[in-house]
Automatic annotation (TrEMBL):
Presence of the UniProt keyword Signal in the record: yes
The organism's taxonomic lineage, starting at the top: Bacteria, Pseudomonadati, Pseudomonadota, Gammaproteobacteria, Oceanospirillales
Domain Leucine-binding protein: 32-376
InterPro entries named in the record: BCAA_transport, Leu-bd, Peripla_BP_I
Assigned protein family: Belongs to the leucine-binding protein family.
Keyword check for DNA-binding: no
Keyword vocabulary terms for this entry: Signal
Source organism, top-level taxon: Bacteria
Signal sequence residues: 1-26
Name of the molecule in the record: Substrate-binding protein
Length: 424
């Protein structure tokens, strides 16, 4: 088989921090509703992948303890993308052959975009968990792709709304991953922070995937030599941790404000509490959100996750968990697992789950939602916190209606890419 598949049930244990799911016989053959998780269990984004698996499994455990989906038990089939688009495509083919009712997952936008296009060939929904490039629901969007998390445009707009006053008169340097997410994130940030002049606010592209330490250090040296006040570190996963460690060793953290546009708890843990201290970024969700704003369902999710895994959930886990429930709800509204009926049930649907209200917007299938600006707490505060995982202080919240692209902006992106002005 082109990918290794794991059939899991509610009895699957992921108790250890880096446990790999074991093969366990699931619900009765031919009776279960099968969901396909296409995620990285190896490679530089494996932490984000493990979080997705844990979030999905918790949701499925809860569903199977009640009435499943449409009265049928739920089964999870997983495949390792290793954060590689070609592997993700082969996984989709094999998962489709195993009769999954939908697919979800992601780690990089290149993976999600490629996998989503393949899912459409099999008339299957694909829900993006970690895919921040604007293109996912923009230039490369299609009827079978739904993005549960936010996008680069939304994160950049939230960061700019919080930072622009403090950025007046400051010089920025962009250190950007050389692929779709990096490009669209940098472009959005430059637009909203009014730093589109690349001579005044220079940058450097870093090889993706698998940048070498030397690549990162060369880019950081350029940032240091530029005299910039602010480092826009457009890196993700272990690549961000690599860059921050190098920046610390080079003394840049004492000289520059460092902004990481898209943060997750897993990334913060990988970098470490001392390295992360003072770093500013955006998140679609973090476990502090339901406690800060009093969202009961969010609190219940956090507490169930901590009880099961002995760790706090990241936004990756929350996204996968939410997707399972959103698929269940759509299936029950449609009374069917038919993909066309599911699309109609999702489009325009508003829901509240782990935070405030979200909407599956009909014209682009983007989940419009609030965005949070956060800063990593001082090391001593993190080490004194429960499980040593209270990394993020919430600085600001931007409502989804203010953060998301407008219809005219979305159409302009589609038009520039030569795409139809409606999803196909």
């Amino acid at each position: 088989m082109p990918a290794a598949f794991i059939r899991t049930t509610i009895c699957l244990l992921l108790a250890l921090p880096f446990a790999i799911p074991q093969a366990i016989q699931a619900a009765p053959a031919g009776n279960s509703v099968k969901l396909g998780l296409n995620y990285p269990s190896s490679g530089r984004y494996k932490e984000q992948g493990l979080a997705q698996a844990r979030g999905a499994l918790l949701a499925i455990e809860e569903l199977n303890a009640s009435n499943g989906i449409l009265g049928r038990p739920v089964e999870l089939l997983t495949a390792n993308t290793a954060a590689k688009p070609d592997k993700a495509v082969e996984n989709v083919k094999a998962l489709a052959a195993q009769n999954v009712s939908m697919l979800f997952g992601g780690s990089s936008s290149a993976v999600a975009i490629a996998a989503g296009k393949e899912a459409a060939k099999h008339d299957l929904l694909y829900f993006g968990t970690l895919t921040y490039a604007n293109e996912t629901t923009g230039a490369e969007g299609h009827k079978h792709m739904f993005r549960e998390t936010y996008n680069a445009h939304m994160a950049a707009k939230a960061l700019a709304s919080y930072l622009n006053d403090s950025l007046q008169g400051k010089k920025l340097f962009y250190l950007t991953a050389d692929y779709s997410w990096g490009w669209s994130t940098e472009a959005s940030l430059r637009t909203f922070t009014k730093t589109t002049d690349t001579s005044a606010h220079p940058g450097a592209l870093v090889t993706y995937p698998r940048p070498r330490d030397g690549d990162m250090r060369s880019a950081l040296e350029a940032a240091r030599d530029s005299g910039a006040d602010v480092l826009m570190l457009v890196q993700f996963g272990d690549d961000m941790a690599l860059a921050l460690h190098a920046a610390q060793q080079m003394g840049l953290k004492d000289k520059m404000t460092i902004i990481v546009p898209n943060l997750t708890l897993g990334m913060a843990k990988s970098a470490g509490s001392g390295i992360m201290e003072g770093v500013i970024g955006a998140v679609p969700w973090c476990w502090q959100v339901p406690y800060r704003y009093d969202y009961p369902q969010g609190k219940a999710f956090v507490e169930a996750f901590v009880s099961k895994y002995g760790a706090y959930p990241s936004s990756s886990a929350a996204s996968a968990y939410s997707i399972v429930y959103q698929f269940k709800d759509a299936a029950e509204r449609a009374g069917s697992l038919n993909t066309g009926k599911l699309i109609k049930a999702l489009e325009g649907h508003r829901y509240s789950s782990l935070k405030d209200e979200q909407e599956w917007r009909a014209f682009d299938h983007q989940s419009v939602q609030s965005v949070y600006v956060v800063r990593s707490r001082p090391r001593n505060e993190i080490l004194q916190s429960n499980l040593h995982e209270d990394f993020f202080e919430i600085l600001a919240q931007l409502p989804g209606t203010e953060a998301a692209q407008s219809l005219s902006e979305w159409q302009a992106e589609r038009r520039a890419a030569g795409k139809q002005l409606a999803l196909e």
